[in-house]
Amino acid sequence: MTYEGEYLYDPRLLNNLDWDSVRGWLNPHITCTEPGESWLLVRPLQLSDYSKGFLEILTQLTAVGNVSYADFERQYRNMHKSGGYYVTVIEDTRTNTIIGAASLISEFKFIHGCGLRARLEDVVVNNTYRGKQLGKLIVVTVTLLARRLGCYKMTLDCKDHLIPFYKAIGYKLEPGNANSMTIRFDETPKIATPS
Amino acid sequence: MTYEGEYLYDPRLLNNLDWDSVRGWLNPHITCTEPGESWLLVRPLQLSDYSKGFLEILTQLTAVGNVSYADFERQYRNMHKSGGYYVTVIEDTRTNTIIGAASLISEFKFIHGCGLRARLEDVVVNNTYRGKQLGKLIVVTVTLLARRLGCYKMTLDCKDHLIPFYKAIGYKLEPGNANSMTIRFDETPKIATPS
Predict the structure, then answer these.
(1) Where on the tree of life does the source sit, at the highest rank (chains A, B) (predicted)?
(2) Domain residue extents for chain A
(3) In this structure, which topology does domain A11-167 adopt according to CATH?
């Protein structure tokens, strides 16, 4: 069986992650293969998630805009071809709905012995599933995946109110080195050219 | 002419960037094609930069380790194949030495209308060339390149003492949303398995 065309990345990468190393972070202890409810499924993104509410859940994070199926498929294939995109979702299989997502993006480096660095991006969980630790579950899943891939570190940008959440699962604000700065091009005022 | 095999990315992308939009950031006004000295050359990374001191200059940033030419070439080709890696260097053509570098890495997103996001990574300039604005020059070059590529934003992680430098060229600490958190896997104590 090949996973290509079925999943954005090989779903077997989610088997046998080192959940013992994070014992205590989730209470009760759940994992991506034993997520606490029989109707919860943690897996790589699929093309069919377009119609399962994947983009709708991302709107809880930021603007998504009008994305047609063709747009979605093109970007999915861009990610698949490029490699290094581990977009991971939680599905409620009772309703075939995506209720959570997080992305691990890996980056080739020359530093650290031509190492691999990881980033955590676009974490979101449907609010109506609160109390099931699904936010922690999806973030720890992709964090353990990054370690399995051999990344030397994983970083994330976050808002002030989310710092305690990430601290509880091992992320740190490194003293003197915890700043994320941004330049936005879409906010650049466009000056109309006189015709 | 094809750039493949010659450069990590198409060097023509550095022509005609919108330097007018950043007038005042560099004083005197220099650009990547008019860098102020006839012996300065701003261009994409090449494989031959292995023997021009590219890795040596990165050691001013962080640990690089022992990287053979084969390691370097493998990672260069990984980046070229993946796409989205715009590693840019400044060469002193009098000595055929790399004296500065900065990387733009682009990332496919589903948010922002299946947009493209940019990151600034691994910025370094040889200290002995101080006073020539080469730090600003290389960072503004890849920032303008990100805008040309259609990215909606560019971000960077930086140490406290570098905040004023980046503020002077348009980067901001967004209120309530300027935190970079890190988990390091290479610091995880390795427990020897009894044999």
Answers:
(1) Eukaryota
(2) 11-167
(3) Aminopeptidase (3.40.630)
Which strands form B179-184's sheet, in the order they lie side by side?
Answer: A40-44, A85-92, A97-108, A116-125, A153-158, B179-184, A179-184, B153-158, B116-125, B97-108, B85-92, B40-44
Would you call A180 and B184 a contact, using CB atoms and an 8 Å cutoff? no
In this predicted model, what pLDDT tens digit does every residue of B173-190 receive, in sequence order?
A: 999 999 999 999 975 444
- pLDDT attached to residue B186: 76
Q: Which of B105, B111, B179 sits opposite A158 (nearest CB)?
A: B179
Given an 8 Å threshold on Cβ–Cβ distance, is A82 in contact with B108?
A: yes
**Nearest residue on chain A to B77, judged by CA atoms?**
A108
Residue A25: phi and psi, rounded to 5, are: -75, -30
Q: Is the confidence metric ipTM above 0.90 for this complex?
A: yes
- Distance CA(B70)–CA(B78), nearest Å, equals 12
B11-157 in CATH: which number? Answer: 3.40.630.30
Residues B180, A183: C-beta atoms closer than 8 Å: no
